[in-house]
Each structure stands twice: as C-alpha cells, then as structure tokens.
Amino acid sequence: MKKIEIENMVKGLASIRKMRKNEKNLEEIEKYNKLIAEFNLILDNYTSSDEYINEEYMNRVEMGIIETDGTPIKCEKCNSIDYREVITDKIDYIVMEKEAICNKCEHFMGLWVTGNWCS
Fold first, then answer.
1. What does the angle CA 106 – CA 68 – CA 8 come to, to the nearest 5 degrees?
2. Strands, DSSP E only, in 5-107?
3. Structural domain total, the chain
4. Which of 96, 102, 40, 95 shows the shortest CA–CA distance to 65?
5. For residue 111, what are the domain limits?
6. pLDDT tens-digit readout, 5-39
7. Is this model's pTM higher than 0.70 or not?
8. Tens digits of per-residue pLDDT, 69-100?
C-alpha cells in the first residue's frame, strides 16, 4: 500500500465517522460501525508491518515532517509549521478524534485517534 493510499483511507475513515455521527437510524449506525472496524483493521495490519514503519514512517521522521510518535511537525505539501487541530469526534466532552490541517494550504497532515497520531 502506498502512502497516498493510506492517506486516502485515513481521510475516508474520518468521513465515515462524520456520517455516522449525523446518522439517526440505528441499523445505519451499525453499518457505519462495521465499515469503520474494517478500515481500522486494514490500516492497523498495514501500518504495523515492518515495511510501512521502515519505509514510510521513518522517512517522514527523518525529513522532520512528524515526531517519532506521529505528531505532525510541518506540512508535507508547503512545509508550513502552522496547523490547526479540528475535533471530529467526541463522547461526553472527551475528544476521541481530531485532524491536523495546515493553515496555509489546507492539506490534511494527520489524524489523532484516542491518544495516537496516524500521520
């Protein structure tokens, strides 16, 4: 899986979570939950592989794009360090998910989910 495919999956996952949040029908919510679980499984399986960690993740750390824990440092597209964190999901006022978006070019920089950055 290439970096752009992973970024697209992370963006897709965020979109699905937003749609689930707005859904009222319990059956549809359950469908969203199953889809989210499938996305997470694919991402977890790939991003935990040695290939991904060595080739993609460490290159991004070395280039100063992300910290070793995945926290965004600068935008890959425009090199700006100015970004905002947009809360995309919370439960009872507890932030469950947020996105890092570059303030200069609006590029998606990463997704934080329950304590971990997926950059």
1. 40
2. 83-91, 94-102
3. 1
4. 102
5. 3-118
6. 777 777 777 788 888 888 888 888 888 888 888 87
7. no
8. 889 999 999 999 999 999 998 888 889 999 99
